[in-house]
Amino acid sequence: MNQPTLVFLVLPILGILLRAFYNVFLHPLRNYPGPFLCRATFLKWMLVQCQGKSSNYLQAMHKKYGHVVRIEPNVLSFIDGQAWPDIYGHKTGHRTGAAAGANARGNLPKSSYAVRTNANGYADIVNVPTEADHRRMRRLMNHMFSASAIAGQQPIIRKYVDILIARLHAKAALGERVDIVMWYKNLTTARKNEFDFATLRAKERITQGITMEKHDFMSYMLKYNDEKGMSEGELMSNSSVLIIAGSETTAIYLSGITYHLMLNPRVMKKLTHLVRSTFASEDDITPNLVTELEYLTAVLKEGGRTYPPVPSGLPRQTTKGGSFIVNQVVPEGTVVYVHPMSINLSPMNFADPLEFVPERWLKDPPAKYANDNLEATQPFSVGPKSCIGRNLAMAEMRLILARMVWNFDLELCDESRGWKGSQLVFNVWEKKPLIVKVTSRWRDGQRGKS
Ligand code: HEM
User: Fold this and answer.
1) Which residue has a Cα nearest atom 9 of ligand 1?
2) pTM for this structure?
3) What is the spatial distance between Cα 208 and Cα 220, in angstroms, rounded to a whole number?
4) Which of 232, 319, 387, 407 is the most exposed place for a label (fewest CB within 10 A)?
């Protein structure tokens, strides 16, 4: 072997082997369980992710190794409910001085590889690098999601739900089958644009300020935008992030629920009966009244458990001196996360974890589900960086779902059987079409006259 071959071939291989040896036998995380290849090199997990198989693989690994798995040399995945507050929750414990570090828990910083920058050069609430700046943005954006701001948006939501329902009635009349993922996506995207988040219109909207008495979402933010608020560039960045964060997730969430309802006739029948017997007419299905339907909310929560729109872990990094996670100090600089699909579907947290059982979320659940660890499921995450749009999303989804089952009988078409199981995950779901036969409840066209 000549010298260049030695340098270009043998040395890198030797480097990889030495690194793998260090990772397995000397690394601070060496005592954490996990598959050998994952503990030795990041390549194994990278390959699994590129194949879109991360969700099933990590679920299997948690089944084998328990509540914490070392999935890359420097990455730990958790499925103990306590990991949510410890990693993402509000900070508790000592913040400064000698006792800081291992004693402190919660709100760990986002791991550096998860932080991206924006095309316009301004940060948005998701990628803003400092805690102080995040708080500044969040404080201002909170106004957009107050109870009164959400109530003010109800006519807009209603307008788009009306359009969805009318178009689905037209499809039903023609006997056409629909891709419900696409229909939900169209609805939530159209509605978000109307909220004036759209970047093209956002600039114009920001310039108008609140002088026009326009009570859209943006006005709630602009009203409080003083010198401690956001620059024009930041407002623009956040307008885009709101569209992305808000529309697709809601559509995915609803698609998952619709799929599970169609697979579970018992639940579908119970929900349909509840909605159709509670309201005398479709006009009575209002945001306030649907909130009172406990079973409807339980269906939504079970949907968030069985098909979380964000199925992959949101990476955070342990801090100086290590961070306290699920009763142990995890060494400084480790990337940690809760893996939603694994925690939600683990028998460690739920009875019949693979079944769609909304009853587990009722105030008085059947005995079999009384010991479920409901806090283990957090589709909106927890803590200071959890979903700011949670209440809006829940209000919107309650209304859409109630109106859907009020109007239609839904049937899963053969080509979409196995829809969920066949989907790959590339950080987010692949979002395959979900083909549904939609039958109007009023086959004779007497819609709403029941
Ligand atoms: C069912 C629908 C939704 C789900 C499942 C969902 C889920 C999430 C999750 C898991 C996070 C945490 C992300 C992280 O830690 O990096 C998040 C953050 C966020 N979500 Fe949602 N979301 C939904 C709907 C919405 C809606 C409707 C909006 C707004 C219109 C929205 C706006 C945001 C924003 C701005 C953040 C960043 C918050 C921060 O960093 O302080 N989301 N969402």
Assistant:
1) 380
2) 0.92
3) 13
4) 232
